Amino acid sequence: MQIKEYEKDMDILCDRIGEASFCIKEMLEKQSEFNTYKKDFKIIARLRGEEKKTILSMISAMLIVDPNYRDGNEKMSKITYGIFRTYEKEQEEDAKELKRLEEEQLNRKIDQERIEQERTELSNKRKKLQDRDILYRFESISIGIMMIISCGIYLYLHKLYEFAYELPIAFTILVGVALIFTFFQLRVGIRKKQKWLKKQDRRFQALQEDDKIQEVRKKLRLEELYLKYAVNSYREMQELHEKYEEEKTGIQENSLKAIQVGILEALKRRGIEHAEFFINFPSSFIESEELGYIKDYIDKRQESIEDGVYFYIMGQKEDMKQMNELIKKHPNLKTYAQTALEGYGIEV
User: Fold this and answer.
1) What angle do the packed helices 49-65 and 253-270 form, to 10 degrees?
2) pTM here?
3) Cβ distance 137 to 184 under 8 Å?
4) CA separation for the pair 311, 279 (Å, rounded)
5) What would the pLDDT profile of 241-262 be if each residue is shown by its tens digit?
6) Are 270 and 51 in contact, with CB atoms under 8 Å apart?
7) What does each C-alpha distance from 348 to 17, 204, 213, 329 come to in angstroms?
8) Are 24 and 309 within 8 A, CB to CB?
């Protein structure tokens, strides 16, 4: 039965280790992608002569077709409009995830109160059982002492008055032993309950630790979504999305796509790796200030990913350490852990 409890603990650790490995791989790929943007920034800054004129002429045509990239847009900034156009296909799913994460964050306070209440109840039960265990122990000792004193009194009376001591002594011993045995049984029951509470407490702590780790992971993802769309909340994202859809109305999409294809080819010929990204920020080719905004945007996202990678790697190391300690104590769990981690491509 006890091994089943440790298997549950191993399940939690293996799930965290496996999930972390996927997230680390995903974030390292993103990190590698963001690292290459610096090269693109340098190429854009070095654009000169006919090459630059050709790109700028196409960008001018793009600004005519889509006026939302021009100055004087009151509803959305040029960079925000570019961000929403860049991630247009992902907006719906990201918005759902953002809403879910924010709701979970709001509900966490209720969950924390419930968890704290459960911990208090466990603590109170453990204290009551401990008090009762001490009481029964002292009761047993006091009964034993009373038996000895009673037997001594009967023997003393027998010596003085030839008092028949056999029957009262036998009765006292019988009642005393019965009471001591009763208290012993009660203490055995308490010990079982204490053992069960200890298991529950250990399990509860493991789940609480897992909950804290999952909460940090959710916060990291929430922060990444905020940075991705340059917003501070789901509500703000929805409002900007509505404005984006509204401003897109009337744009000649076919003409815009044709111009974008021309710009895309020109940028790729120049060696810009993320040409698809930069055509959504045409002002960055015209104004150095706008290019600076894009750099800051990329830097923030890159920093967020680096923080995430560090957290996942450190967390995975700690989980692996706990897993190895558990295997060291219970070698039979090694096969169980190997099976659990096989699907994640991790060897124990």
Assistant:
1) 160
2) 0.73
3) no
4) 34
5) 998 888 877 777 788 888 888 8
6) yes
7) 11, 26, 22, 15
8) yes
